[in-house]
Amino acid sequence: MHILDLDVFNREDIIKIIDYGFYFKKHRKSHEKLLKDKNIAMIFEKPSTRTRMSFEIAINELGGNAIVMHSNEIHLRKKESIKDTAKVMSRYVDCIIARVYKHSDLVEFSKHSSVPVINALSDLAHPCQVLADLMTIREYKDFNIKLAYLGDGNNVCNSLIIGSALMGIDICVATPRGYEPNAYAVLKALEIIKEYGEGSITLTNDPIEAVKDADVLYTDVWVSMGDNKSMEDVLKIFPKYQINKKLLSYAKDNAIVMHCMPINRGYEMTDDVADSERSVIYDQAENRLHVQKGLFKFLFTSPSH
Lowest CB count within 10 Å: 133, 157, 243, 297, which one? Predict the structure, then answer.
């Protein structure tokens, strides 16, 4: 089973992964060595803090061996085709985690890999981040909520839309014109909402509309790695999507604030919000570790996988 985005799961799968995540959070040193004798390759075309640390520590604590390769240490798309790299690597290891620039490269890689490929971030999707986000939402709320996403309709936004649909969350996405989420993610979410008969998705350019009566506010960086947005344009267009005290006042009194980090403080979120009691950003970051252990447990112990 390859995990390129969350649409490979159903609701029961995600609940199971999150439940496993809570188990590992409670029993950090559980000595459950489900990755014993397993080698996990990690490919990084982009820099990383949380993704690299959470995955590598998860693998180590579950008894596995993490093999980390950066783009300058591998022939991928340079001297060797994606197909050949995938075929060779999957004969060596039990799972491949890849953080890449182009989602299409990940799709091509997964076609030729005989072991699970996990998307650790691409330009289209960031499923592992959103698994941690859903775990955090469940930790503080439930899934019968309104979630407001503000800012750039980027990879995190795309996966968050699909994850919200799977869990029956009402999500309202506020982006500037021309920065809307990927149409595929929206259409996939609408299919899922129709299937389950609950949840909704609203797209708007008005941040106040999105935040009004929201239970959770979520934002991400305005310019992602590898993005060619002009900073001059960004600083003209995005400031009204900043999560600050004024915007937060339109949400419910007990609303929480999320950011997948790194935060450009003073841009997408102000310091007084990021460091407030309403902020759960550090729990959200920590949950990357626990839910990724849950994902490994799902992959390597579920009968159908």
Answer: 297
Cis peptide before 262 (omega within 30 of 0): yes
Q: What are phi and psi of 267, to 5 degrees?
A: -110, -90
Angstrom distance (rounded) from CA 223 to CA 234: 8
Nearest partner of 24 among 296, 293, 304, judged by Cα:
293
pTM: 0.96
State how far the Cα of 101 lies from the Cα of 121, in Å rounded to an integer. Answer: 8
In this structure, how many other beta carbons lie within 10 angstroms of the beta carbon of residue 31? Answer: 8
Does position 305 have pLDDT exceeding 60, yes or no? no
pLDDT attached to residue 75: 62
Q: How far apart are alpha carbons 217 and 245 in whole angstroms?
A: 12
HSE at residue 292, side-chain half, CA atoms within 13 A, is 28
In terms of Cα–Cα distance, which of 185, 177, 75 is closest to 122?
Answer: 185
Question: Distance (Å, rounded) from C-alpha 291 to C-alpha 289?
Answer: 6
DSSP state of 234: H
**How far apart, in Å, are the Cα atoms of 185 and each of 58, 176, 284?**
28, 17, 23
Q: Give the per-residue pLDDT at 29.
A: 81
What is the DSSP secondary structure assignment for residue 216, as one 8-state letter?
E
Q: CA–CA separation, 217 vs 21, rounded Å?
A: 22
CB 220 within 8 A of CB 257: no
